Amino acid sequence: MKLQNFIGGQWGTSEDLKFVPVINPANGEELAQVPMSSTGAVEQAVAVAKKAQKNWALVPAPKRADYLYAIGLRMKEKKEHLAQVLTKEMGKVIEEGRGEVQEGIDMAFYMAGEGRRLFGETTPSELANKFAMSVRAPIGVVGLITPWNFPVAIATWKSFPAIVAGNTFIWKPATETPMMAYEMAKIFEEVGLPDGVANVVFGSGSEVGTALIEHPDVKVISFTGSTATGSKVAELGGRHLKKVSLEMGGKNAVIVMDDADLELAVEGILWSAFGTAGQRCTACSRVIVHKDVKAELEERLLTAMQLLTIGDGLDESVKIGPVINKTALHKINSYVELGRQEGAKLLAGGNILTGTPFDQGFYYAPTLFTDVKWDARIAQEEIFGPVVSLIEVESLEEAIEVNNSVQFGLSSSIFTQDINRAFQAQRDLDTGIVYVNAGTTGAEIHLPFGGTKGTGNGHRDSGVAALDVYTEWKSIYIDYSGKLQRAQIDTE
Ligand code: NAD
Question: Aldehyde dehydrogenase domain location, by residue (predicted)?
């Protein structure tokens, strides 16, 4: 199947474009072919999105929200199909595929609710007989650039607040995972979303992504991906005075204190380190452990890791699927090699999996290093695979310092039974998301999602905070005094 762009409610792609195969990372099977669109497709999409936005902004927000309810319902009806497609193209196990689709459904209903809120503020004027208020105004056409590790959820975090607020959008999904974008475009069509409100253009970051950022009629760029790409996006967006929202890499840690429930900590670490084969932006890739429980934690982790089942994510009994492609496999392996050279002690894994059934896909053994120095490269850089480093500390203060030593600031977690330590940690951990007695993953869609430092640039996906990305504040003064009143001057 050759995928087609969805622009202005029409499906189409010029045949002379280059098409790239979409590969199932579990078995190497070709699932579809995705077009590498030219800048012409971006031009076309921006023109229709700009035209559509004028009318869309005039549709009352609760009516715009009705389309989101319809999208949510349709996603619910198609949930199993969507989850299967997601698992095939991205590799995450089917229960996580279902979970990701559910996140999109939840986001649709949550943001639909915002259609009846979109609160502004009224405030007293400093002058008599004058009324003052501020409202959220839509911005225009927004460009969405998304990564492959959450092929649908991240797009819903961005596109649903964008449209409920009265914007139209053009979505460029990652080349590795275009099929969920295609499925979502079908849903936009099925629910009768007005033409041009939602557009999908497939293609490379360098061509389609750049064209979106540079286009004068695209006012907002919302990007999720690596910190390296994000900084390029910010630079180019800055040059063109765009509002740019960036959600980027992570190097997330679980802290295990000497009073922690170790059984719970092991469960939390396994789920957040090896779920999605370690390819979540919030994945745990460091465990900062108190010296008094280090040996026991290592032993418990090793025992639990033996029970992890690895294979094709469509098999319900499998807990860990493949990584996205061969390049990722080799990048992970080279970090493991680096870890060995840096003197870390390898306790488990450390190899590409071979033999049946792994040969056709891209599988990496869940890997555990210990005695890792806090400033080693494997403890500082994003590996984005099933590799965890144990770092020993002597106190809560040291644990927090080690957690905060990385350039990223997405998610962190602490296992402790001491309420005072928990509160100190949630205050001092320098990340956008903090968990107490849970792993580093598991964000809920009605709270802001994003990170500090090298993970973001101050914006947030999800929650009401997402509306800040897709709206401008407009302040409105209504003078009913019948005379010209001059603020700051007529106040005596
Ligand atoms: P990536 O940066 O390689 O690509 C992300 C998107 O940007 C893709 O659609 C890609 O085509 C596009 N792109 C590439 N070059 C571009 C350019 N020059 N201009 C514009 N667009 C360009 O990231 P990836 O490998 O797809 O995803 C993995 C990364 O995403 C990891 O670093 C992970 O931590 C991060 N991530 C972050 C979050 C978060 O919310 N903080 C969530 C998920 C993933």
Answer: 12-476
